[in-house]
Every structure is written in structure tokens, then in C-alpha cells.
Give the backbone structure.
Amino acid sequence: IRNLIILAHAVHDHIVHFYHLSALDWVDVVSALKADPDATSKLAESLSSWSGNGKFEMRAVKERLKGFVDGGQLGIFTNGYWGHPAMKLPPEVNLLAVAHYLQALDVQRKANKIVSILGSKTPHIQNVAVGGVSNAISTDSYSTLGVERLLAIKGWIDELADFVKNVYLVDVAAVGAFYADWTRYGAGVTNYLAAPDIPLDTKGTQFALPGGYIANKDLGSFKPIKTFNDDYWVKGVEESAKHSWYEGSKALHPYKGETKPQYTDFKEDGKYSWLKSPTFYGKPAQVGPLARVLCMLAAGHEPTKKYATAALDTVSALAKTKVGLEAMHSTIGRHAARAVSCAVQVDMLADQWQLLVNNIGKGDVATFNKPVFPKGEIMGQGFHEAPRGLLSHWVVIDDGKIKNYQCVVPSTWNACPRNEKDEPGPYEASIAGNPIADPERPLEVLRTVHSFDPCIACAIHVTDTESGSAIAVSAK
């Protein structure tokens, strides 16, 4: 059940990220008004069998878009970089992208329905407990997880798979073909780190998706992370606050991590971020879909090889030139990797659904193992390959009370300031050398940063530098 929630959430996140959070960095919405809807439909139908590519659909989308423009209010398309010199897509491709943008608004809801049924709500699911989940399973009751809900979930999985494989994967390949020059920009840090994910046992020793570390974009250097408690992983992580608004500068292991604010205002050669700087064996690392896909390819994961090959072949056909795996180390490559990851995960979603149904069929409806906590001081950590990349929490417990708790999350790895050795993190490294067509509208910077799917919640803090606190809460 947890794996189903994880995978459905990932599929939702990937669809929303591309279409609603970053596609308009590449798509000129106003240009779509110049498109021939019938030609757009013909192009779309040459690329995939998606049912939403018909000429009547494209005509309706163009009319809807025209209504926005004629009314002087672009609504959800307000404040775009329309007419920017870095925009390259022809009008028909722009119209197709707008149509799929609108269709994706409906499709992403199906992934959320899966998470809501299993997790009670989304976001902020309510069913997870230490030791398992709180879902009751019964084939005889409508108030529990039974046949009706399981069949509904399977229907949504099939619909998601249709969209991901026939729309999302194809659209990303098309954008990549028209912006092939962007395979030369935005690589940044090419040390890649990903966690194994989708555990298949209770001890975290078997996973459906492999993970590990790749040094300097050499897939031959891949070293796997095999278990939750793999020493290679546990001993390799440190965080520095040299350029962060916290006391100290020495890199510390998360079990010994300190988070004591020391705000100095922005200092280019000093402290300039609320994020710490994680490293893996002393080196900065990029996390996220690109790291995930490259690690799975290096591990010989066949489903990933299948979808990565299909994506690169489509790009090559549209660009009329061979585009190989090297192109993935780039801004546009991160989008391609996210689409490949999504295709792998939507297949895995169906696999996990079948495993759950098989277990229920055998009478295995247990959903919880009562945890037992040892006495004295204990340390533990857990990781998860979240949509944005490797997420880990580290805790020290002493006599049943939390003594230290540190989170090392995806955007900390990618958006971090320079580390203890003054090496830049992935965001900073990736925007160096990007071309800028219009300095007043630096769209190219957004393209690269958006390709990481930023989540800067952990980079924003509210504090009172005089009293040391910003708010007092009384719990009764």
C-alpha cells in the first residue's frame, strides 16, 4: 500500500512538473493562435495513438485560447515569456503542447484519486504509521479497502499509463528535438546519487528499483546502494554550513548535525543561503530523476533501458540526427529522464497493485507490524527516492526521546550553496555558461533551474534575530 502511494504520487508529480510548472518555459502559448488545428492533429497522430489528438479537439483548444486572448485575460497563461527570442517551437507544436497542458490537468487528478483512497487525503496523507499503514482490508465491506476500490484504482492506473506513454514521453521527446542545442547546457554537477526504492521486504534488503552513486558522469563507476543500512550510504553523507546561515563551517555527519541559525545577510564570499551543503564522500552530488535514471541504466534495469531507448530514438527521428545517452547530461536531459522515470514508475504501479491483490487473494491482509524500540541511545535513518530525488531523515533517540533530527532532502542536495571546499552545488554549477538572449528576461536561467523541479520550503525560514523565535504555540 505504501509503495502504491509512493508511485502514484511520483506519477502525479512528474506530470504536473512538466506540463504545469516548466513546459511554458519552452512553449509560446500566444504563438499557438497562428497554428492550423488540422495540421496540429495530423502531426500529433503521427507521433502517438492518444485519443485526445483529434482535429476537433485541436480546434476547440485554439478557440478556447483565442477567447482568453481576445478577452485580454490569459488566466493561467498570464505572465509567460511569449515572443521571447529563445522560443523555437512552430505554432502547431505550441498548440499541441497547450492542448496537452489542459488535458494533463484532468489526468493528474487520477493519480491524486489513488493517493486519496489509500492515504485518506492528498496532500498530507493520514494512513502511514510506524510499522505499516492503518488501512483496513476486507472484500465484504464498502467502508474498507475492498474489491470496488481496488478495481477503481486499477482503472486509473491504466488511464495514467496511456497518458504517460502516449503523451508525456512523446511531448518531452518532441521538445527535446526542437531544442536539441539545450543538450549542451545545464549539466552542472555530474556526480549522481540515487536511493534504491520500492522495498519488497520489511527489512529494506530488496528493492524493485536500484540506486547508487555515479562519479563524474561515468556509468562504469556506478556503485550500488544495496540496503537501508548499507555502510556505503550511511557513512558517506555530510553537510557543511560554511556558506549557510547557521553556526559553524565544518562538514558534519547528519547524526551529529547542528542547526543553529546565524543570519548575516547576503555575503557572496560568506554565508548566503538557509540551505546547508550536503556531500557524498566529500563531493557535491546531483539527485533527482536524471540521477535515478542513470543509476538504473548503470545497474542494467531493463524497463529503464526500454523507455530511455524509446525516448532517445524519438528525439533522434524528429531531430534527424542521432542523439545518444550523453545528451541526458543537460537541462533538457533532466526533463527526458523525468519522463522515462515516470514511464517506469507507472508500470511499477500496476505491478504493485497486482502484488497487493495477490496477497489479499491468499488471505494476507496484515498491514502493520508493531515496532519495538531498544533502550538507551539508538540512531537510525531512512531514505526514499522522492520525485525530486533522494530524501533522507536521520534521528538519534535517547531513552525514548528524540535527541537529534536532521533532514537531507532533494532540494538541499541540488540548491545548496558552495560547500566546505567552496565547490558549487548543482543549481549554481548548471547555470554557468547558459546563453542569455535577453538579459532583461533571463528565460534560460529559469529553464535550467526549473528542470530540477525546485522545492525551496527548506530554504525559507522565519526567525527573530533578537528573541531567537518567531512564534509561540501553546498545545493543550
